[in-house]
Amino acid sequence: MSSEQLQKQPNTIPHWHTPDGETINITDGEGAWVKDDEGKEYLDFLSQLYCVNAGHGNERINQAIRQQLDRIAYVASSKHNEARSELSTRLAEINPIDDASVFFAISGSEANEAAIQLARQYKDAPKVLTRWRSYHGGTYGAASLTGDAETRASVERYAATSGTARFLPPLPECFDASGPEDLAEKAANHLEWVIQNEDPDSIAAILTEPIGGSSGAFPAPPGYFERVREICDRYDILLISDEVITGFGRCGDWFGIDTEDVEPDMITFAKGVTSAYVPLAGVIMNDSLGQHFGEEGIPVGQTFAGHPMACAAGIAALDEYEEHLIDNVRSLAPELESKLRDIEEKYDVVGDLHGRGFHWGVEFHDPQTGEPFVNPWATDEDNPVAEVRSHAKDNGVLFGSGRPEIQIILSPTLNINETDIQVAASALDDAIEATFY
């Protein structure tokens, strides 16, 4: 069925659907490239939704799924299974938490909901703090954690949510700071002020992305997360690292928090754990939490959590990351950054560039004012940043939209090469030129 036929017969309503938007019909994929039903190829510099980390058509992952299917397709999430046990052991070994335990879920939203449920129960405290301009999911519970105004407002319009509070991210526009060290100090001091004003005893956890995900790929200034860890310890608050996007090699290490050299109490994961070949997510927790819930039990669960075929895919994906893909990110990340820095220097509309590894945000500002061209959360004006993505797509490269869409996100599959980087950089250059000049 062609794209035109699909548009005329919209039996499936896409997620993040806009009636006037154009939805391409992707039918095939190989490596870093995908193909639509008309045979047009696209360089997937978004990894679809920051998730196909190992690239499309990875035979090792496909074979692992087939072999598991031939053994047994499904085992209840309340029971043990070899693939499930092996993957949890591997995850416990590669993450920065000592003596870790794993609780599986299905999606990133559900992993974050599970983490806050466990944290609240463990701490016997109701509140969770998250950052403004964060994204932690679109279900009712996860949207209540999300600092992205568009997502949160859309969900809360019909259902009240509670038990969360916000603090400002460590971004220069949020604080009058003289440099990175000053920004880290002021942002951490602000977090402590919020904790004190929310009542520390009422706070179970802080949930934060180590590097912004769809919120803009922004890293924290040096020293910030060390202070956050100290503050959590001082007030006996759990630190949860949301690694749904930043995990599994995306930022040049197994997890984004590894690049900060900080040990959280819990890690939430999804997306890249299976390279998105089968849905899988979960929560990695420290020894104290693991022992507590091992002894006390967990009275809830999900039917498809830790699905055997997903776990088999996850084991194979971890092999791919360990053997060569994380090394590829470390090797080529400087080249990707260099190409983006060249574009930043060339165009005065590129107001900021930030990221780590294979996860970057290119932010656009009006050079006359230094402010974004539009605020998509507050106005329906035409957004030139959306035009940049559209132009690149027409030229065969897929980029992502940031939250808010004052930026585009580049988050490619981890198996790209130098030629792919050049293709993406040229497409971005052309799209900026066509949109703004």
How do you describe this structure in short?
The protein has 437 residues and is an alpha/beta fold. It contains 13 helices and 15 strands. The strands form 3 sheets. It has a 7-stranded mixed sheet with strand order 4-10-9-8-7-5-6, with helices on both faces.
Description:
It is a single chain. The protein is an alpha/beta fold and 437 residues long. The chain has two domains: 167 residues, Alpha-Beta Complex (Aspartate Aminotransferase, domain 1); 262 residues, Type I PLP-dependent aspartate aminotransferase-like (Major domain) (Aspartate Aminotransferase, domain 2). It has 13 helices and 15 strands. The strands form three sheets. The chain has a seven-stranded mixed β-sheet, with helices on both faces. Helix 9 links the parallel strand 7 and strand 8. The chain is globular and about 65 Å long. The two termini are 38 Å apart. The model has no long low-confidence stretch (mean pLDDT 94).
